[in-house]
């Protein structure tokens, strides 16, 4: 090798690697993960996964094996690459930065009585009943989307209660955000007699909803990763309704005997988790995550 060839080669390799990192960062996380000194750490991923992953599942297999009996993670059902591109930090801020969004606490959703239009709202009222905070619940907070992203989209404080964590999920203004949602392709599996309702959210690492249940539905991760904990309807989990999933994971989860451990798995961007009717579930966003649920009500 001629003198100088090796450094040049190393430089070329380093440059390529740096470009690849940059490229994958932009395409891979939509600009939602902050980098550099002081950037919040993502939560470690648990590799164990007790939920089946199925690629190219047919509708009849879905109905026969999962729809009424167990959760499943669906891969490759729809192509939401356009929707994903529109959900990058930059694009969402450009399109919706001034839109006022309604934030809710991780344990308390505020809906006015008589305004429970879809299953996401039922979830809200269940959460509210299950886990009203120790004091008066925080009212829902309305603020411009840009302010939420710049000031409130931070990792979950592990010492704080769910009643102190504000995040954007499930209280979407569908007329204002229609230009985005029209590009989302929901999983093409419906259940007889149900209608669908979307619930779109963006939340920081370590955030998530504590255990609750409602009707069946799908939850797709657009950016980030979301860890799920699930129990069948007849196995009520051990959990404190006023605590966050993160606290539950740290305090309760390690003490669970094998026979009472949840089904769990981490859903990656582009994957869709299906949860059947009345299955208990808690979620934990491992990164700043963008996600959309399709409730079958
Ligand atoms: C949760 O907070 C509510 C409201 O203060 C309280 O009534 C309830 O007892 C708490 N739940 C538990 C299990 O401590
Ligand atoms: C949340 O619960 C904590 C612990 O009981 C309490 O000190 C705090 O005031 C509550 N915060 C709100 C906003 O309700
Ligand atoms: C949704 O947004 C539109 C347009 O900004 C607004 O007029 C309407 O009041 C909003 N709806 C709700 C329920 O906030």
Automatic annotation (TrEMBL):
It holds the Pfam family Cupin_8. Keywords: Signal. GO terms for cellular component: nucleus. Residues 163-297 form the JmjC domain. GO terms for molecular function: cis-regulatory region sequence-specific DNA binding. Residues 1-25 form the signal peptide. The keyword Lipid biosynthesis does not apply. Coiled coil: none annotated. InterPro entries: Cupin_8, JmjC_dom, JMJD6_ArgDemeth/LysHydrox. The keyword Repeat does not apply. This is JmjC domain-containing protein 8 isoform X1. It comes from Ursus maritimus.
């Amino acid at each position: 090798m001629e003198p100088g060839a090796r450094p040049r080669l190393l430089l070329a390799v380093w440059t390529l690697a740096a470009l690849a990192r940059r490229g994958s960062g932009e395409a891979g996380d939509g600009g939602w993960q902050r980098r550099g000194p002081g950037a919040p750490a993502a939560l470690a991923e648990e590799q164990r996964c007790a939920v089946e992953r199925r690629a190219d599942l047919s509708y009849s297999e879905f109905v026969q094996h999962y729809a009424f009996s167990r959760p499943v993670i669906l891969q490759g059902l729809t192509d939401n690459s356009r929707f994903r591109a529109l959900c990058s930090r930059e694009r969402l801020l450009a399109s919706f930065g001034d839109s006022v969004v309604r934030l809710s606490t991780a344990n308390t959703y505020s809906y006015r009585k008589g305004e429970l239009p879809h299953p996401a709202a039922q979830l809200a009222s269940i959460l509210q009943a299950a886990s009203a905070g120790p004091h008066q619940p925080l009212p829902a907070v309305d603020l411009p989307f840009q302010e939420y992203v710049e000031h409130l989209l931070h990792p979950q404080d592990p010492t704080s209660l769910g009643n102190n964590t504000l995040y954007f999920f499930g209280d979407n203004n569908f007329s204002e955000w229609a230009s985005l949602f029209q590009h989302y392709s929901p999983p093409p599996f419906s259940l007889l007699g149900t209608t669908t309702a979307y619930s779109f959210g963006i939340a920081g690492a370590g955030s998530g909803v504590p255990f609750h249940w409602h009707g069946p539905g799908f939850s797709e991760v657009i950016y980030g990763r979301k860890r799920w904990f699930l129990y069948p309807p007849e196995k009520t989990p051990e959990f404190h309704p006023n605590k966050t999933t993160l606290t539950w994971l740290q305090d309760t989860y390690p003490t669970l005997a094998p026979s009472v451990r949840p089904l769990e798995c981490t859903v990656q961007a582009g994957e869709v988790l299906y949860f059947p009717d009345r299955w208990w579930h808690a979620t934990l966003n491992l990164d700043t995550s963008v996600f959309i649920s399709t409730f079958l009500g």
